[in-house]
Amino acid sequence: MTGNPRTVTQLLDRRTLLRVGSTSLLGWCWPDRLPAKAKANSRAKARSVIFLFQWGGPAQHESFDAKPNAPEEVRNIFKPIPTRVPGVVLTELLPRTASVMDRLCIVRVLNHTMKNHNSAGYYSLTGHAPPTDDIRLRDSPELFPAYGSVVDKFAPAEPGIPSFVAFPHVLRDGSITPGQHASFLGKVHNPLFVGQDPLSPNFGLPELTLPADISFERLHQRQEMMKLIDGQTRLLEYSALARGMDQAQERALTFLTSPKVRKAFDLSAEPASIRDRYGRTSYGQACLLARRLVEAGVRFVNVYFSEFIGGNRQGWDTHGFGGQPMNPFLKDWLMPLTDQTLPTLIEDLDQRGLLSTTLVLWMGEFGRTPRINKLAGRDHWPQCYPAVLAGGGVKAGFVYGASDKIGAYPVSDPATPDDLAATIFELLGIDPHTEIRDALNRPFPIAKGNPLRDIIA
């Protein structure tokens, strides 16, 4: 599908790589980079963002807005436990998370009106409301770009480092969920998408591996040689596309030859004890990979918790599928996995001196109904749900906003995904009012909301 996230394998075939020896296309050729980069300001508090997207919609009652005094049909069977912040309680299934609450910022009052996964997911991934709340919402170039693509345009990483990386799934609810790529900004701003399982013992990037008969040294030698030839024959006057390679392919080749990028993706270089701390799960190792990437200079990382929704070990869509109640899924899988990965990532970033410059964002596309349904599950509920942030310039040990006594609606400081988008860009030093133009050349701000200044340290 046009515009979908593409792996480097899709961008580069063997013929393209072999053509490098006669076209000298390893340099970056982005005429729009300098004007765009100038729109980032020096007040940035965050250098990078790790977006832990919880596909399916976590229940606020079982996570970060427990309601232990609510009626029986609302509260869950898990007990509340205290945290390191007086007066803030979490569910008993999050003991490690409770121990790092003094480094977290919980926004309890996100709300919107999109009740379908694809429309709500798109809203959450871009900060722009879809034209309609429709389960059939399809990816199209008229829809807005992902956060990371906007960051890539206006505050890119240093040359040779991808600004935006996403893994290990392409989200979908039937059709592919919009908002995972650059859309009308152009494919040059698409994420470097990695669709392999980071838990696999063979995990790596074969798409960053040259054909057997071409070494990296030989590639660089050819590049230097062709600079001389190009200088004499004025080949550099031709566009990259005319020479058989577009800007996206140029970027992929740059990543291909970057030792720093290859090193970041080498999870085998991590001590076994660190990999164990994150958990020997696909999601745990993906969170570890995210830390390695921001350490290497990547600006925006999307870690998708699940590819599908519904059923056992397939995301947070806990309606009560197949007549099975939600609590076993929460107790045996979803909450323990969250309680292992989120605190570990926060602690690891902190110990490495990266937390102050890395914004961690944990959230789904909506919450769940206050009342438990007849299948002992909870249905979709976008009217009030939480987001958890840490580092990157947000207040620590802080709770923003409050929901009513059953966790159904905000009673103070309601916020929308538009406001959260503006906050993300503000923390990265990008003016939320910065203008982009859609496929019809209509101007829009990158975020229509207002930054949540009360959560900014």
Molecular structure report:
The strands form six sheets. The protein has an eight-stranded mixed sheet with strand order 8-5-9-1-10-13-4-14, with helices on both faces. A two-stranded antiparallel ribbon has the order 2-3. It has helices at 8-11, 14-23, 33-37, 95-99, 117-126, 147-154, 216-233, 247-256, 259-264, 272-278, 282-296, 326-351, 417-427; strands at residues 48-53, 80-82, 89-91, 104-110, 164-167, 172-173, 175-176, 192-193, 300-304, 358-363, 367-368, 380-381, 385-390, 398-400, 402-403, 410-412, 435-437, 443-445. Helix 2 (14-23) crosses helix 7 (216-233) and helix 11 packs parallel to helix 12 (326-351). It is of the alpha/beta class. The relative contact order is 0.22. The longest helix has 26 residues, at 326-351. Residues 5-40 and 228-245 have low confidence and may be disordered. The protein has 13 helices and 18 strands. A hairpin with a 5-residue loop joins strand 17 and strand 18 (443-445).
